[in-house]
Request: fold
Amino acid sequence: MAKTIDEKPRLTAKDRANRLTGNMKGSQAWNSIFRPGSIFRKGYTDSPRNRSYVIMNSVLYHLHPVKVKRHAVKVSYTLCLGGLSFFLFILLTVTGIFLMFFYRPTVANAWQDISNLQTSVTFGLLVRNMHRWGAHLMVLSVFLHMARVFYHGAYKPPREFNWVIGVVLLMLTLLLSFTGYLLPWDQLALWAVTVGTNMMGYTPVLGTQVRFVLLGGVEIGGDTLLRWYVLHVLMLPFVIVIFMAIHFWRVRKDGGISGPL
Amino acid sequence: MTEIPEHLRKRAEAARQKAAAESEEAAVPAPAAAAPTDSRIPAALLERSRAAKARQEGGEEAASSGGGGVAVAERPTTSIIAAPTGTGGIPVGAGPGGHTQRLLTVVKSGSIQEVKASPIDKVHTWPHLIAAEFVSALALTAFITIFSIFVNAPLQQLANINKTPNPSKAPWYFLGLQELLTMFHPMVAGVTIPGMGLFGLMLAPYVDKNPSNKPEDRKFAISIFTVFLMFWAVLVMIGTFFRGEGFNFTFPWRDGLFFDL
Reply:
C-alpha cells in the first residue's frame, strides 16, 4: 500500500489549480460565455488570425474595426480625448446610479439626502466627489476634443456631418452638467441656476415660455427640482446616447479617424 | 445612378473613334464586307466568320449526303474524326489554324474598378488600440479616485430663495456668458452671441472649403479658431477669478476667490 503511494506523486497545489482552470475553461458554460477568439478561451495564442477574432467575435466590433491605421494608435495624435469623454460618460453613469439610491428630488429631502450621503453612507462622499469632478472633467475633455479635431482639420469632408453631431453632443454635455448642478439644492446650486435660466428668459419670442416650461413655474422651486432631475437622469442621457451612437458609427463610416497630417 | 468615372469615359470615347477609323479603312477594299450598320466588329473578323460558316455548311452537306437519314446523329462524329486528321476540314466553331479558343480581349482591373494604388499602413486593434484605451481609462479612473479622496465637492447651505449670495455666479462654463452680460443687453449676451457662436461652429465644415489638413495650409482657419477659443477662455477666466462682490472687478490675490465649482 505504501509502495503505491510512493509511485504516484501527490499533486502540488499548483497542479491542482491548473487542472481546475483547465476543466473550467473546457466546460460548456465557459465556452458559451466567451466566443471563439476570445483571449479568455482555452488555448488562446497570439497570432494575426486570433488578433482579428478578438475584435470580430466580441461586442467591441460595434465600436472598432479589426484593424486601424497605424497613426491612429498614436496617443500624441488624438490624446485619447474622444475616448476619454466617452469613458467619463460611463463613469458618470455608474457613479450616478449609485447616487440615485440615496437621493429624493424634493425640496424637503434633496439637500438632507446629499448631506446624509456624505456623512453616513459608506463611500458616499467619495462617489459624490467622483461624480462631481468627473462631470467637470467631461465638459473640459469634450471642449478639448473639439479643439483637437479642429486643429487637425478632421471636420473636413467626408466628416462634416459628424462635426455637427459633435457640436450637438457638446451642447448636450453642457445641459447634462447644468441640470445636475441644481440637484444638491444648496445655495450654490440654486443661484447658479437662477443666473443661468434668467439669461434663457431673454430669448426672443419664446424665451419666457421656454423658461416657464423648464422651471415648472415663474421661479425655481420644487417643480424645477423634479423636472431637472428627470432631465438629468433619464431624458438627456437617453438623447446623448443616441447621438453618441451616431457619432461613433459615423467615425467608422467616414473612414476611421482622420489624418495623418 | 452613379456617374461614369472620367477616365473610363475618355477610354470608351477613344475606343469608339478607333473602331470608326478601322471600319472606314476596311470599307475601301471590301465594300461588301463592311455592313451598312455601324457594327464595331472589324471587317476582317466578319469575313472570317462568314467563311467559316460557309465551310461548315459545306461539311454538313457532305455529311448528310453520306449518312442519309441519320444525319443528325452522325454530324458530331464527323467533326470529331475530322479534327485530328486535318483533312476532313476544321471542327465546328474553330478559328484560323484550327484553334478552338480565341482570346477576345484583356480587361485590366483598373479599367473597371479603381484600385487604390497605395495600401494603407494598418495595425491590429487588439492589442495595439485596446491596450492604449484601457491604460488611459485606468489612468483617468485612478486620477479621479485619488483627486476625490483629497478634494471634496462643495455642499453649501440649504437653498434659500430669500438670501441672494454676493456674488451669484453661474457654473464655470457659463461664466463667459455672464461676463458678456456686464457689457451687453441680456438678449445679445445670453442668446445672440452664444447662438451665433454655436451656429458658426456647426457651419465651420461647410464654410471652410480648403481641402488640406496641414497646419501650414490653414493659417487663417487656425487663427480664427484660436481667437474664438481664447475669447471664451479669457472671458471664463475673468468671470471666474476676477469678479468679486457685486460682480465687480477684483484681483484674486488681493480679495481671495469668489468662486466654487
